[in-house]
Specification:
Length: about 160
């Protein structure tokens, strides 16, 4: 049966969840080997880094500021593996919280990422990974947008 993909999302001022069920070739980045076989793996690379792009590709009138929640559920029936990604956006889509849960018959993984836009020049990112039932910070950084168009990364985790 391969991989099942379901994307659920909500828009601002709407409590109803909408559903997309893209085929693996619509969700994952084209890989010549996977395309040739017609097989994708749950760990294949998604086409878009920002999940809102899947919605905006389908409906060009949508903007990041319209979207409040996006959840992605990946299930690999052959490997008995699942990945769940829960995205929450606020402040017109400029800030986000992402929760990721992976499970296989042998292991599980849980992380939370919070990304805050402090002003147009600074973005603060915090990442927590669950270890032995406790969320532990693994990253805390400020990404600075420099005047010359480059970015600098300042590690704040001590």
């Amino acid at each position: 049966m391969g991989i099942n993909i379901k994307i659920t999302y909500r828009l601002k001022n709407n409590t109803e969840w909408m559903i997309l069920q893209p085929a693996p070739e619509q969700y994952f980045d084209p890989d010549p080997e996977e395309e040739e076989k017609g097989e994708y793996d749950i760990e294949s690379v998604p086409r878009f880094l920002d999940v809102r792009d899947y919605l905006e590709e389908r409906d060009e009138s949508l903007r990041d500021s319209d979207i409040t929640n996006v959840n992605v559920f990946l299930r690999d029936f052959e490997k008995h593996a699942e990945t769940s990604l829960y995205h929450t956006y606020w402040n017109n889509g400029e800030n986000m919280l992402i929760e990721r849960r992976d499970s296989t018959p042998l292991e599980s993984y849980h992380e939370i990422i919070v990304q805050l836009t402090i002003d147009r020049c600074i973005c603060e990112t915090l990442r927590f990974v669950e270890e032995n039932g406790i969320m532990r910070p693994t990253m805390h950084s400020h990404i600075l947008n420099n005047a010359d168009g480059t970015q600098s990364d300042l590690n704040c985790l001590r």
